[in-house]
């Protein structure tokens, strides 16, 4: 029995049975002093902590205290650590004091010495959050089983301070493109922009330099243009752990969301699939109450959402525009990675829009290539369709090409293509057979992928492998399936169905003209000007 239970039993038996102190002590096997203590008070006295001596440290306690007092005036980064105190005691006084003994003593004495010297105690103030005004942003690390491979990703979190409504997005990096795209996604989901401050760490995508001992920051020009476009004011916390409490809501939100919705490690085929799941998780969060609040997150957000500033009419272009030159391998280098483009652009300078998940390549205003963004240093991405014109002149290069190897791995070069290639090489030889295959692959630019595959199978069934027969059978398969036999030219037609569309380019002149009021003035009369057309001809002198 615990001491508290013994006290209750002693007091109960003394009152009900009238037992003496000696009888109670004999019954419970305790000393008579404990019985008297139990009868005088129902609560046991707190146990006094034992005072332990440390023979090795006692002679040097005054010296250690003096060093700790001197630290109050020393710069923060040049104060004594326990390891340094142990070293000084050994070097200057020849004392051998165990590290753990000194650590416990310093942990106890450092705050006592600071209090004796009148140093102010560190405290925190509860912040008042106005609805629709303040928000907080942070990144957190996250592991994802992406297409069967463990991949380190980053979780972007945007949290409204009043309601606690949070929007999340997972990206493969925490660079500026992911940072800006996370904001665009969050503001579009929230349906507005906070009217007050948005609190940040000193993130590299936003801050290029922290001004010493001040709240001023030198901002990245693109970030400055971004928050100016949306009309909110960024607030930067103190660097390091000293500023973590200034946006404590989102600091805890990242860990909470990761533990409750992303554990165990999520397994997905693409990050886009995972981001779709996050939308459902965020809807589930709206039914949660934070701490001791009476209302749910969804109820508070319903009150806050109407107070947010409206979104601008046009979204900000978050992609970074680069202008690399296409090398002789039909590749462009973008951030230590290389991507293929159609071979006809070799030697030309193209425009690349670098986004967090994609790399889009343009020649003038026409999209010529679109790739998923690579994250590993030195990685390369090839599309076999980009090299077909070159392979017509160099058919021997196809078998050992990296473009063919990647096409086999992603499934765009299927077993049906392999069967056609083998049949063509047996009948025509390696060179002409490969050329016959390349001509069939060119059909993917104008016909549906499934129709070309059906056309190849039909051609092989009758012992043919020419592109004319494959094209005819592919059109028959399209008509039988109720599809259009031809499609628009696609820059990556071999890579299965197309993913992108031609970007819409807004004319600045037409945009300005559309904002002008209608012209109701009558057309000018030009009859008086016709007499200028009847000028008498001068006779040569």
Mind sketching the topology for me?
Blueprint: H1 3-16, H2 21-28, H3 32-40, H4 61-71, H5 82-93, H6 99-116, E1 135-146, E2 149-160, E3 166-171, H7 176-190, E4 197-200, E5 207-210, E6 217-219, H8 221-230, E7 233-236, H9 248-261, E8 267-268, H10 271-285, H11 297-305, E9 320-322, E10 331-334, E11 337-340, E12 351-354, E13 358-363, E14 366-372, E15 380-381, H12 388-393, H13 402-410, H14 415-428, H15 430-442, H16 449-461, H17 467-480, H18 508-514
Parallel strand pairs: 1-4, 1-8, 4-7, 11-15
Antiparallel strand pairs: 1-2, 2-3, 5-6, 9-12, 10-11, 12-13, 13-14
Helix pairs in contact: 1-3, 2-3, 4-6, 5-6, 14-15, 14-16, 15-17, 16-17
| Oligomeric status | single chain
Mean pLDDT: 88
- The radius of gyration over CA amounts to 38 Å
Number of helices: 18
Structural class: alpha/beta
Helix content: 25-40%
Q: Please give the alpha-carbon distance between the first and last residues.
A: 140 Å
Described by the principal axes of the CA atoms, the overall outline is elongated
Please indicate the percent range of residues in DSSP E strands (runs of 2 or more).
5-15%
Biggest beta sheet attributes: 6 strands, mixed
Give the tally of β-strands. Answer: 15
Low-confidence parts: 495-503
